[in-house]
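Module 6 notes. Inverse folding takes a fixed backbone as the condition and produces residue identities as the prediction. Think of it as a translation problem where the source language is geometry and the target language is the twenty amino acids. Below is one complete input and output pair. Work through it position by position during the lab.
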């Protein structure tokens, strides 16, 4: 099984999850607010979509199931990440939730694919930037909505054979 797991408060993460779903064959789309994260155990390939809230925190539904994520055995699973944030209003913690998810998975020795360039973004700091690249697809629907489709398209092409 392959699946895209996401949660949304404003609808933006769901919209991006749907765009990714349209580009990648064979992936189920799972809203963790209603279905939780248990199905990750049945997956061989997983895409996790998170958005940053408050002062660089996980969106509430991800926060609620974060302990469950830490208990999942990701051995032999292919994992990719995408995150949403607002680089203008929250440039000092831009897509930090993506970085939090990444750090948690890396501590479990999960191999993550799909890093992307930081070019074209203007922010002060991000936990999602590692070695000069973002740890996954980064979307800013608040300030760069016009770039979303292109970024999703390019990222999906990049990960298609890896995930």
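Target side of the pair, the amino acids:
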């Amino acid at each position: 099984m392959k699946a895209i797991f996401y949660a949304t408060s404003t609808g933006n993460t769901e919209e991006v999850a749907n765009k990714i779903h349209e580009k990648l064959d064979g992936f189920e789309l799972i809203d963790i607010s209603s279905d939780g994260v248990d199905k990750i155990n049945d997956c061989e390939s997983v895409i996790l979509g998170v958005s940053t809230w408050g002062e660089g925190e996980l969106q509430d539904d991800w926060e609620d199931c974060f302990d469950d994520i830490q208990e999942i055995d990701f051995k032999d699973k292919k994992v990719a990440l995408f995150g949403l944030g607002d680089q203008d209003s929250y440039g000092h913690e831009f897509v930090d939730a993506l970085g939090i998810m990444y750090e948690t998975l890396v501590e479990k020795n999960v191999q993550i694919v799909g890093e992307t360039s930081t070019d074209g973004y203007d922010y002060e700091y991000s936990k999602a930037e590692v070695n000069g690249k973002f740890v996954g697809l980064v979307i800013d629907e608040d300030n760069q909505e016009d770039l979303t489709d292109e970024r999703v398209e390019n990222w999906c092409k990049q990960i298609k054979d890896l995930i």
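Reference fact for the lab report: The longest strand covers residues 45-53.
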